[in-house]
Amino acid sequence: MALSFQTIRPLFQTGSSASSRWLSYVGLGIGVLLLLCSAQMFVNIQLLLQRNNVQKSGYDFISVTRTVTNATMGQPDKNLFHEGEIAEVRKQPFVEGVAPLLANRYRVQMGAGAMIPMRIDLFLETLENEFIDTLPPTFTWAPGQEQVPLIVSSDFLEAYNVFAPGQGLPQLSSETVTTIPLLLTCSGRGRQLQFYARIVAFSDRINSVLVPKTFLDWTNNEIGEGPDQGSARLFVKTKDANDPKLLAFLDERGYKVNSDKTKFGRTKGVLQGIFTGLGIFGLLVVVLALMLFSFYLQLVIARSRESLQLLLTLGYSPKWLSRKVSNRFVPVYIGIVLSTVAATQAIQWAFHHLAMYDRPELQTLVHWSVPALAVLLIGVSVLTNYRLVRKLVAQLGEGA
Amino acid sequence: MSLHLQQLLPTYFDASRSETSEVWGKDLRFDKGQRVKIVAPSGSGKTSLMHFLYGLRRSYTGSVHIGGTTLGNLDAEGLALVRQQQLSVVLQDLRLFPDRTVLENLEIKRQLAPYHEAEKITEMAARLGLSGKLGARCGTCSYGEQQRVAIIRALLQPFDYLLLDEPFSHLDNRNAEIAMGLMLEEAEARGAAILFADLERVEFFPYSTLLHL
């Protein structure tokens, strides 16, 4: 027959200290509620702001340049990225990949013949294929090939269609543009090379005119002027463009980032900071409540000192007594923590339905981390109580 | 199984006490089934001896071994186990819960290491004249009644050694003899030894060994 605590339960006097016990219960409830709500809000912020990123294949691609100031103007070595700097960016844990955007070192002019009677100077860049969002299989070039495929930013077409009517030029659809034969004239080192070009895709990600790397390397080699001085732009592949660590890293080095892609990250950083602070405050309240409760336990044991000593004298196991005394409060702890989980659930429901109008990014149910945290808190409370009671009973046992 | 006292001497006694005592500073071995009478005048350390043997105090030199285990080396858990299974005691100061009833006091011990069924309490109480007192708070009982409660409590668990420290100090001869009879029966049933320390010889205790403290 298992030894029952019922027989000896009346020996433990909780007496007139009930007020301090209830105070500690209320404190524990408030602290746990603050902690759980902070954890849930932390998750909500992540979910709400992550959806504002332009993600393709689960990654964000951001363009990074160096800030050109009056002091660095005209000094390419200070405004371009060097190999060492690229390697440093690459080894950061929040960076999945880096590719420099390489540009032409010769003059490029483009015309569209009689259909669009205009001729413009432009720049060409190249980027590793892995970083291009719209990559058709025709985006290749080999020396001797007359036709050069181009990938152009969709913003450029939009800009053209804005000013074209005012210049007496036709507005064009993206499908039409891809059928227009273009003429590229590349000049440098006293030579002039001509190629036919065709736009094969538009990119939402890269604000440039891209050509295959083989073309740019070949033409730079043939007619490029001046030495290769590095890249003015880097393309960074990351899981989250709003990662505060990534932003802090870029800020620290004075690198400039496309702000509309990262502004949510900065807002997120601030909000997460606020809720982390609130979570820490909640944790402090929990610690204070547990301390108050430990004082209450000490009082109970001090009042029941003689009974406990006599039980030990009779042969009761100190371990068993400690477990039974501390376990008396386990249902109370579980009750408090479960109530706070329910309250957190109610708050989350109100936040989702009433404040966020059922936004699909959010869930009405609390995140799994909230009940997990609640279980952890129960475990910590029970363990700390048991250890305290065990220590006090062991001290009593020295005199029994 | 034996209880072995090796050069046992309280730290607050002079070493010369071992020259006049048959217990202090001596090597003694008590086997199961033995009846040992320890006669000790006031101040000779009778209660100290019982406390040492029950593991209540460790202010002694030498050692106490029970079944090969050194009592002084046991931790609190080990000591609790020995008190549940091997040693039982009737202390001079009784140590009852004054706010609990006689029955509750007895149940607290019985349930710890049940040797008898709950009905046995009623039977023992009737034998020692406590039938009407089972529902009374111990604090309201006379000292003689409390002494009988302490005696019954000591008999509700398994034991190899029953330690008695002046168990009849507040009982008349008739009641003391009845209580002794009960203790002898219970010890007999367990094959246990009795170590009985008192101020003077008690005629109705059939000792096999007599020692002067």
From TrEMBL, chain A:
Keywords: Membrane, Transmembrane, Transmembrane helix. The chain crosses the membrane at residues 22-43, 274-297, 329-351, 366-386. It comes from the Bacteria. The keyword Transmembrane applies. This is FtsX-like permease family protein. It comes from Flaviaesturariibacter amylovorans.
TrEMBL record, chain B:
The keyword tRNA processing does not apply. Signal peptide: none annotated. Residues 3-213 form the ABC transporter domain. One of its GO terms (molecular function) is ATP binding. InterPro entries: AAA+_ATPase, ABC_transporter-like_ATP-bd, ABC_transporter-like_CS, ABC_transpr_LolD-like, P-loop_NTPase. It holds the Pfam family ABC_tran. PROSITE patterns: ABC_TRANSPORTER_1, ABC_TRANSPORTER_2. Keywords: ATP-binding, Nucleotide-binding. It comes from the Bacteria. Belongs to the ABC transporter superfamily. This is ATP-binding cassette domain-containing protein. It comes from Flaviaesturariibacter amylovorans. The lineage of its organism: Bacteria, Pseudomonadati, Bacteroidota, Chitinophagia, Chitinophagales.
